[in-house]
């Protein structure tokens, strides 16, 4: 099957300026995603969708392709990941290329490995599903959460407070790293979360949201520990 890796990297990051090419332990963070895609050996093409020429240059140096630039319509704060993927697929069709599978990888996902991408893509093919999405289990049971009412704490669901953690159903959330999609299903349903989604469960040590500078520092510390890198 023909497959493409799409790394989405617009230039207009607000909370962390130039986030997608900011150095992460000495390397532009987008390089980690590009490297994982290339080393997985699963793609006919590894491309970066960006509206920013500096990001495009960094991407090309890392081995990715930038066959066309992202439009203004999908480079704003309100464009969804699905809209970006759809635009990329249509842009490829206009130059005579089509794909049966797509893996959308976020540019600030240094914990993504080539093996994880390869495993997820193989799972997509084996399961014949619409999508494979990496998820991680909540470290604390959401069923035992508390809320603040009139400056007082109260259980959201009192009936769960006396139950053992192991007796509560495990809840998971999207890792926010990458999505493996069947192109035909995606084009029909116009969404990432489609009808038939297979979970790819990840360890919590390999997952970290990077939305703030504090997140960034935590991610670098976790990465050093995970990889055995000394400061």
Structure description:
By secondary structure, the chain is of the alpha/beta class. The chain is 30% helix and 21% strand. It has six helices and eleven strands. The protein has helices spanning 30-40, 53-61, 81-94, 114-127, 183-189, 213-227, and strands spanning 3-8, 23-24, 27-28, 45-49, 101-105, 131-137, 146-149, 152-155, 172-174, 178-182, 197-202. Strands 1, 4, 5, 6, 9, 10 and 11 form a seven-stranded mixed β-sheet that branches. A two-stranded antiparallel sheet has the order 2-3. The chain has a two-stranded antiparallel ribbon with strand order 7-8. α1 crosses α4. The N and C termini lie far apart (42 Å).
Please tell me the overall pLDDT.
96
Residue share in helix: 25-40%
Series of H and E elements = EEEHEHHEHEEEEEHEH
- Describe the global form: globular
Q: C-alpha Rg, in Å?
A: 19 Å
Please, how many helices? 6
Beta-strand content bin: 15-25%
Biggest sheet, open or closed, and with what strands and sense? 7 strands, mixed
Residue runs with pLDDT of under 50 for 5 or more positions: none
Structural class: alpha/beta
Oligomer: single chain
Total strands: the figure is 11
- N-to-C span: 42 Å
